[in-house]
Structure formats: C-alpha cells, structure tokens
Amino acid sequence: MDSGSQLIGTVFDVKRCSLHDGPGIRTTVFLKGCPLQCLWCHNPESMSGRPEVLWQPEKCTGCGACAEVCPSGCHRMDSKDGHLFNRRNCSQCGRCAEVCLFGGLSIAGQSMSVEAVLTEVLKDKSYFETSGGGLTLSGGEPFVQADFSLALLKECKQKGLHTCVETCGFTSYENLQRAAEYTDLFLYDLKETNQEKHCEYTGQDNRLILDNLKKLSASKAKIILRCPIIPGLNDREDHFDGIAAVAVKLDSLVEINLMPYHPFAAHKRPQLGMDYSLNDISAPTAEQKEIWRVALSKKVGCVVRL
C-alpha cells in the first residue's frame, strides 16, 4: 500500500452483504459529512462531519456511569425526571457511550484509516467474486472527504474490486473527475428537478448537481440515477417530466432507480436532538410505487427499477 492507505476518514458504518447499493453483494462504507440537509434523509447521523452522540432514553437503566465520566457535565441523574442530557454543552467526546452498557448512548462516527477500512471490505472478497459485487462508498456525501474517498477507491481498484460511489453531486467536478478513474459505477442522486423546491427540500439549489451530472456523463462514466420519491413533496408529474428530460441527455446512463420514501429518520433524528418535519408522511404502498415506476418508464428510454 502507498502513503494514501494511512489517510484517516470519519466513518459511521460499514455494512456488509448489502444488496441494494450497486450490483452483486457489496460492502457499503458510509462516510460522515454532507453539504445537503434533505428533509427526508434516513441517515441524519451522516449530516455532520464530526462524531455525534445518539441518545435513546428508553434504554437507560439510570446507572449514572455516563454522568461520572462526562467532562462537560452534560448528563445528570434527577430523582424526579430521571436521566437528563444537556446537548448544548456536549463536545461529542464519546466517553459516555463507551461506558453505557445497555445502548442508551452510542457514538456515530469513528476515525478509520484507508487501510483499516480496506481490511474490513476485503473480508467479503469471495462474495464479490461470485456475485459481481464490490465496494460502495456512500454517506453522507463521500466527496466531503474527497482525499480519503479517492485513496480508498484507488486501493480497492489495485485489489481488483468493483467500485461504486453514491453521490449527491454537490461537489467540485474535479472531485468527480479524479474519482472516475477508480470508479466503475456512479449512483447519482437526483432528488428534485425544480430548482426552488430543491433548495427548499435540501438547503441547496440543484444547478451544480445538474452541471456535474452532465459533465460526468460526457466523460463516459457509467451512471445510475437514484431518485428519492417523497409523497406530497416530489411525487409530481412535473418532477417525473424533469427526471425524463435529464435522463434522455445522459449517454452513459445505465438505468434509473426510484427510491420510495421510508420513515427511517423518524426515530433517528430525536436520538440526535433533531426535529423531524415529515411525521405526517407515510411510506407508499407497493401499488403506489408501481404506479410511479410505470409512469416514469413511459417517459424515458431506459430501465426504471424500484
């Protein structure tokens, strides 16, 4: 391995035997940090680039170990109200999570070297070889940690692994261009085609994302468009028309994946001290998902999958 193998990144999960993050059986590495703040994000622990404490009070036994080790006095055991956690003073040091034996407190995000991540990924190399799988980089947004992502992709290609990168596209094109040399397939998010609504739903407009997508396709990089569909937000006819208008101009497009809404974040955001604004939205039925798939399929000249 070269010097890049010693680069350190912040990883919040390494998911082995993944079946939905590219072809075959894959190991998906989730990196922290994202430039978008999507209302529906089901990995809210990925938004911040720093490690974060997750708090599940229903698992607390009141042992008080966290209060004893917290250097900032964030945890207090109250005889009336039980365990009180003051996040405003929390430095995210993770000491409380280290001593919590029942999972009430946990830490999302740990420092790992490229070499350490690669060691985890290679545990499944035999599965990759028989299924056509490999590594998928996800997040968050991998290019928030661009140097780390590039080094990991390079090491994986040197080991003969198939590589995918899931990206929101809100990064410099230079980052995408550098990664393309070591990336077999981009899973490119297209969250909203209306510029104003994209800004409303994600905190950023979509001009850079669409421009990068156009350039990436022109470079002949293989692309799967991933389109989250959220009932009441972007399940609109004009958005499906917008997806089709983008797709027909992408010469290297492999297929389109619709990503129907699921309320994963409803329980995660409170663990991070965040509010969740989509509590009134339910996951779509199988019938509704199929209606979306058929509707988009009629508008584009490629495969549309759920």
Give a structural overview.
The protein has 306 residues and is α/β, with parallel strands linked by helices. Helices cover 32% and strands 23% of the residues. It is built from 11 helices and 13 strands. The strands form 3 sheets. Strands 7-1-2-8-9-10-11-12-13 form a 9-stranded mixed sheet. Strands 3-6 form a two-stranded antiparallel ribbon. Helix 9 (237-247) links the parallel strand 11 and strand 12 (253-260). Helix 3 packs across helix 5 (146-158). The longest helix is centred in the middle third of the chain and has 13 residues, at 146-158.
Number of helical stretches of at least 4 residues: 11
Largest sheet: 9 strands, mixed
Outline:
globular
Radius of gyration of CA atoms, rounded to a whole number = 21 Å
Q: End-to-end span in angstroms?
A: 38 Å
- The amount of helix comes to 25-40%
* Oligomeric category: single chain
Placed side by side, the strands forming the largest sheet appear as: 7-1-2-8-9-10-11-12-13
- Strand fraction band? 15-25%
